Amino acid sequence: MFYHKGVSHLKLSERLFLDKHHTIERFGVLFGVLFVSLVIVFISTCFSQVDFNENLLLTQSKWSTEFTFSLSGATGSVVNVFRDDNNTKSFVLLKFDDLKDITVDPNEYEVFLTGADMNQNWQELKCSPKASVYMFGSTGYMGLYFVDMGGF
Hints:
The protein is 27% helix and 24% strand. The chain has two helices and seven strands.
């Protein structure tokens, strides 16, 4: 068999460093590729989680299930929180545990609204809603109606 000058006569496995003499090099390359792949997956997962948390804050309400009034000490539970599709109006329905500590006159109540993050830590409000208080007679139900045309 004749070989031209400059043409390699190595087997394909030797040309691709797949022979037994390049085991360490193959391991290093394979380890490097796997490590870089894991780093890329980890970074993309972190960015995905940040986007998920931001969407959760924008689309899902989180509220306490129980309340205590600051002056009277009256307690109760939050029945539900309703909002419109434009996020401009919200209604909070409360149910008192005992009616003896409350007045049914809505003019006797003041509403203070604060902002909170996902961990219930205080933060400044990003909107300025107007509030109304509704008492449903002596049924023990109270409604808090919030409106902000700029959105919540």
